[in-house]
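Pair request: fold both.
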Amino acid sequence: MPEEDSPQRDTVRQDSQQHDTVRQETPHGPSHGTPKEDPPPLPAIPVAGEPWRLVFAPDGSHAYVAVSAPAGGGGGAGGGGGSEGRVAVIDTAAGVAVADIPLGNLFLGLLGGDLAVTPDGRHLYVTGGRDTVTVVDTATRQVAARIPLPAGFALATGVAVGPDGRQAYVLAQENEGGAGVMCVIDTASRTVDRLIRGLSFEPFGVDLTPDGHHAYVSHFGDSGMLVDLATGSAEVLPFPFEGAFRLAVTPDGTRGYVGRDHNDDLFATDLKTHAVTAVVPTTRNVADVIVTLDGRLVYASQSGGHGPGPNMMVIDAATARPACCPASWDNAQPRGMAVTPDGKSVYVTDSRLHKVLVVPVPDPVPDSVGNPVPDVLPDAPSGRGDR
């Protein structure tokens, strides 16, 4: 059994002052010069290493975080060669990491490292930029299987599990710098059942439509592709941009919000026509994008590098405008995000602070700022909204 670890909950201050020249507003209008108290600190859960992507158990009892750390243990930076992959298990009720599942010499980080949970919550499928897919038993917190990619394929990156739990979809590429491929894994036999070819080189992320019939695939050097999972056909998406992106799909499957690494814009997209309907400037590199369970709000984590501004932005999905409560943390580098199954909180990984931040989801939706350029940043709400 993995060694259990229960670090105490830490806190990180949520700073509402992004820049000396930024005017602050409450979620419902200007403060009219009334002094405002600092927002309360946000819960932050330490993990041993650099956290990247994360998912929740279907019942919300635990969060599973892909972490990279130096081989042989330790909690320092694991962003280079020789790092090992782990899955940190967070008890969401207690707000602490309760277990650390070692995955072996598996790199988890920016160029790989993704994980998905089966609908019954019993297994995780974890990739790490290698030539295998690791299956973790969430009850025993042990590695249950390692599924090798077919000969000639390597660099497993994005992974998703279908809504019925029968298939897992893993992105890989053919040899070094070759064409991309999607490996369809039978979760019962834990074998690669078939390959979907015809993807562009260096596939990066995979996002399924809510009905599980199609997959959106991002690439480092292409605008993305739409894959019919039944027929295996793939078509290039006519997005007016290229490069790796994260796509969040609304619960009804009609709209997508696309954030690109090394780009400061968030693209609202009609998934039926694939037309970009709005562009929301975010001021910083977009690392991940998620939509709340009711489809009201879009969260964009921002890893920095292109100017001042918040580490996380919240956009009103109805208006495609910044809505409320941007968050900023000193020296932070937010990466992956996930919404709790009850919809009350967003967990945000921070690869620089080695923490997972817990951010409340406001209810009801505050008024939009009114200008898609985030030149006015409203205050954070006072409630925590913990699980």
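--- second member of the pair ---
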Amino acid sequence: VQKEHKPLSPKLKVVESSVLDIFINQCKMPPVSKEKIISTTPRITPSPSIALKEDSSELETTWFPKMFTKIEELPTYDITEKRYWINVEAQRKNLKLLREASQKAGISPDLYNDTKETIKQALHSNVERLALLCRKYKSFYNLHEVRHSLILQLDTAKEAKDGAKMQNLYKMVDKVDAYQKKLLDNGKVKQNVVEKQRQHCLRKMLDLFAQLHSSAQLHLSNPCLL
């Protein structure tokens, strides 16, 4: 007669697969449909023939956005250099004024395209920063829940004096802590990339707006100094 094994209580059960694998699978983004979708992401090199036909309302709405520029492509700035911020509504108005000026042949197509794409890229950086913060919060919250669950199981294993399960759970807690640190470090790197890109765009906007003012007497709202 085979001895019947009594199942462990739910608190003592240890998931055989990695907790991190479960967490990563939960956080995976759904596959992107292959159907043709009209993208609202600003194009870096638009076709000159359709540049003036584009709607000025095409702005920073892609979720989650892709990075425009790699960190190696951006110039480095000293930490003491001036930093700027932009008023979103003012920049949307700038796009409208810019398009009206281009239709009146007051500015060159190259200057129009360069200025328009720089404004839209700067606006898109707001979405990039928000997306990174949302991802960071979601990852931190889910990892906190996983770690809390492991600690509860560890307390139960201590009460039962189950050394094997305690050792296994300690290893899993260490893996969660290491993975959380890795996510936070990667998040900081990505935030720095987006911020450098943003400041690069804002400085470029100042130069382009100055050119528009001198060549076409076009007054646009400048980025504000922090």
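Observation on the second member. Residues 163-216 form the longest helix (54 residues).
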